[in-house]
Structure to design on (223 residues):
């Protein structure tokens, strides 16, 4: 390889993870546009072919976005090109994709005429998920500034994997079944949503314990 080509390759390597992160933001926005413009409130009958296609397209957008999440972190670590932009935008893109999806799944496009949340998510569930994310993000910011290691725990990674599987899976199920009351699809979706809520809340416990220990240690140092 010519020596003059090395800087160009290094620059390209530095830009690829950031480009993937930006792609995740645009894929999330594209998914939200589909769920807003194309997906209509469900009826008691199975959705039309266009509705099913829209749900499948939205699921596809989410899966592609999740793939970029795996790839940008892999390339950044492999090439040692972790940047300030990536440290800011990567978690932002993750939260936008996942939390935004939950907000839409709890929205009117997924509420049947008889008031059933076809996607399984009630607004209060999304509030709990948002509260957990905001709390952990706040604790991480406060304690990392104080020099405390607040990196992701195993429970946090399990939570993220489950959330990333749940969203496209629910969309795919709804594409083929309206998930009416008493249906198999309805029970499957409820199992998914409750699992997400329970695991999300549970995953916040290790961070609270870590914060409590760090606070105690910091107070002991002052005395």
């Amino acid at each position: 390889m010519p020596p003059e080509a090395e800087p160009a390759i290094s620059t390209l390597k530095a830009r690829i993870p950031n480009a993937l992160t930006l792609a995740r933001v645009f894929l999330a926005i594209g998914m939200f546009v589909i769920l807003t413009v194309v997906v209509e409130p469900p009826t008691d009958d199975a959705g039309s072919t266009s509705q099913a296609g829209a749900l499948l397209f939205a699921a596809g957008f989410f899966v592609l976005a999740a793939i970029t999440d795996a790839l940008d972190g892999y390339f950044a670590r492999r090439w040692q090109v972790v940047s300030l932009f990536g440290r800011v935008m990567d978690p932002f893109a993750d939260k936008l994709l996942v939390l935004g999806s939950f907000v839409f799944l709890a929205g009117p496009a997924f509420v049947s005429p008889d008031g059933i949340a076809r996607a399984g998510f009630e607004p209060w569930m999304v509030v709990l998920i948002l509260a957990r994310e905001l709390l952990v993000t706040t604790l991480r910011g406060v304690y990392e500034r104080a020099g405390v290691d607040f990196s992701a725990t195993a429970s946090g990674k399990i939570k993220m994997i489950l959330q990333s599987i749940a969203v496209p899976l629910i969309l795919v199920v709804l594409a083929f079944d309206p998930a009416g009351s008493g249906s198999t699809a309805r029970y499957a979706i409820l199992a998914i949503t409750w699992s997400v809520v329970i695991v999300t809340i549970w995953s916040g416990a290790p961070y609270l314990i870590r914060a409590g220990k760090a606070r105690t240690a910091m107070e002991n140092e002052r005395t």
Remarks:
- The first helix runs from residue 5 to 38.
- The chain has a mean pLDDT of 87.
- The radius of gyration is 20 Å.
- The CA atoms of residues 25 and 93 lie 5 Å apart.
